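hey so i finaly got around to running the thing on Phospho-2-dehydro-3-deoxyheptonate aldolase from Gracilariopsis chorda. pasting the sequence first so u can double check i didnt mess up the copy paste, my clipboard has been acting weird all day
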Amino acid sequence: MISPAFSTPVALPSSTRKLPSSACRRVPSAVLQEPAPPVAVPITPPLWTPSSWRTKRALQQPVYPDLEALQRVERQLHNQPSLVASGEMQALEQQLAAACTGDAFVLQGGDCAESFDESAHGLKSTLAALFKMAVVLMWGGKKHVVKIGRLAGQYGKPRSNDFETRDGVSLPSYRGENINAAAFTEEARIPDPNRMMRAYHTSAATSNLVRAFAGGGYGDLTRVKEWGMDWSLTTSRGRQYMATAERISEALSFIDTCGLSSKQPIMTSTEVYTSHEAILLPYEQALVRQDPFTDNFYACSGHFLWIGERTRGIDDAHVEFARGISNPIGVKAGPTMKPEELLRLCDVLNPNNTPGRLTVIIRMGADNILQNLPPLIRAVQREGRNVVWVTDSMHGNTFKTESGYKTRSWNRIMAEVKGFFTVHAAEGSIPGGLHFEMTGKEVTECVGGTLQVKSEHLPQRYESLCDPRLNQSQSLEMAFEVAEILRSMRDADYNV
Ligand SMILES: O=C[C@H](O)[C@H](O)COP(=O)(O)O
Ligand SMILES: C=C(OP(=O)(O)O)C(=O)O
Ligand SMILES: [Mn+2]
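ok and heres what it spat out for the 3d tokens, dont ask me to read them lol
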């Protein structure tokens, strides 16, 4: 049990960075002649508390009309049990460290915006989709797949515009279940702090179900064929999945025949870690706890938290919050990310350069990745920084159809995934994993894939509360394509 965090300021590890000597000595400019060679100076970071983000600019935060209600909810949350344990986060960091060196591969996926009304059936189908993808990737890549759900906390959304306009009526944008409601009415769009309590309880219920499915039999590898049963026989990728599943089942029964039981816990249960964007800072702060064994602070709202593309300013509140928590964390990197900016983020977010601590989630867009990713990789390699490189091939490829649906094309998403691997192969670095907005349901939100979702099909099952997700067949197709890439990388001894 980790204890609630107190707000005594804590000193975080210092980093050593090379600075020009003028940065550490004050010299009148007239006296300066030639620039002196760089010297290494220890940088002592400012003290951190769970609330030190409040002294910084906090973007994308709701403006609550009732501040007393906000404070009451913060106090209530502060007294709730944590949703995750520090040991789990340490275990995840270890697994991410393996992804850093190419010994594991990350699969992070789930809704863009989770709904409070998600059914157990819906959740189970998304988990099944993740399991299937993981099996395909593991079979092709021959390495452990670290499964991280965008779930049990993905309730806050940054938005491009503060207002949404429909038929001439403008209302505040929907910002996720943690903040306001999606219905297009004035009342629904008022930020309500009580939603944070509901987010906490829904996260708890979701985590509980995830743990039950993953550890309680559903994640058993001997059930690999059952995960595909409902739909797989009807599509070519489905049949391919069943063929792979058949081979895995045969391998397992061979193990049994040899007298080595396939019913070992390592086979019969799996781990799914939870993740979300740490966007709503009052919520995140209220769930920070201090680990009595290490004295480290953890954000106990989920295992893995990331900083979004819109809130990653080095001097801003989200980076300030994230630097003090010991969870493994991610930061999104879009097309405007500069190499120096990324190195500064590495300094601040991972001063000890711990492998597995920092994941850089690239979301450049298919048109930009070949050009914009290499300078980032080169800078990180030059400075010897440990990061896990993951591709989010969704967020840079969104467009609106003529009828107004936000969508993404399977081909463009795949093009960015391929670009990600191509660049890593050229730069001799490690592509560490995939990040998808996806669901186990057969929704029609992204166009393309072998079932050929077309723009005229989008209204049939467009259920996302925010961005368009890959449906289960489109997700599985992605996994097969990537498994093929991993297989060819392996054959070429790419990681050696
Ligand atoms: O999920 C990411 C963002 O919240 C989303 O892409 C923003 O979408 P918008 O551009 O419609 O606001
Ligand atoms: C908001 C998101 O992405 P980004 O910050 O990359 O736009 C997201 O992943 O939901
Ligand atoms: Mn999204």
